[in-house]
Amino acid sequence: MRVMHGLEGLRQITTGAIVSVGNFDGMHLGHLALLRAAGALRREQPVAVVTFEPHPLTTLRPEAAPPRLTPPAMKQQLIEQQHVDELVMLAPTPEMLNLEAEAFLAILRDEVRISHIVEGTSFSFGKNRAGTIERLREWTIGSPLQLHIIEALTTPLL
After folding, report:
1. How far apart are the first and last CA of the chain?
2. Peptide bond before 54: cis, by omega within 30 degrees of 0?
3. Where are the alpha helices (DSSP H) in the chain?
4. How far is 119 from 49, CA to CA, in rounded Å?
5. Neighbour count for residue 76 (Cβ, 10 Å)
6. How far apart (Å, rounded) are the C-alpha atoms in residues 84 and 76?
7. Per residue in 30-66, pLDDT tens?
8. Is the pTM of the predicted complex or chain greater than 0.90?
9. What is the distance between the alpha carbons of residues 138 and 129, in angstroms, rounded to a whole number?
10. In angstroms, rounded to a whole number, what is the distance separating the alpha carbons of residues 43 and 22?
11. How many CB atoms are located within 10 Å of the residue 11 CB?
12. Please, what's the b/e burial string for 53-62 (b: 16 or more CB within 10 A of its CB; e: otherwise)?
């Protein structure tokens, strides 16, 4: 798995890649569903994951940051075990945290020209989490980028 960092790494994702953006801490069933869906779309193009490391709340509101489920090396290993080809680690720097959702998407859609983006129904991204799944749907209409929305999973507690 090729590991890249920061906005420069984001711009190095292979053209045509299938991408999922998210925290991916702990690799729970929802994460697995996203990556399985991405893998099912794979033909010749790679699957790429874009994640923050550490969680953005560690910078924005440290008191509200969720506890870490897996250390960074384990997170990377768990992602690689899901047959991900490329991993972009984004540090929660002011530059990243102030990037508007549409500008972030423009990097993936217009500069890198990814082919598919696979996200869950509660996905949000960009400054102030303004890029909702509904906005993402709007922004991909009429573009070659195909959006795949994976429904949330439920599991009974024993």
Report:
1. 36
2. yes
3. 6-10, 29-41, 57-60, 72-80, 94-97, 101-106, 133-140
4. 11
5. 20
6. 10
7. 999 999 999 999 999 999 999 999 988 888 899 999 9
8. yes
9. 16
10. 23
11. 13
12. bbbbeebeee
pLDDT in tens, 72-113: 999 999 999 999 999 999 999 999 999 999 999 999 999 999
Token couple for 128: 């102030």
Residue 75's SS3 state is helix
Which three-class secondary structure state does DSSP give residue 2? strand
| Residue type present at position 19 | V
Are the CB atoms for 108 and 143 separated by under 8 Å? no
CA dist 38 and 42 (Å) reads 7
Quote the Cα angle for 34-6-147, to 5°. 30
Sole residue written with tokens 């798995």: 1
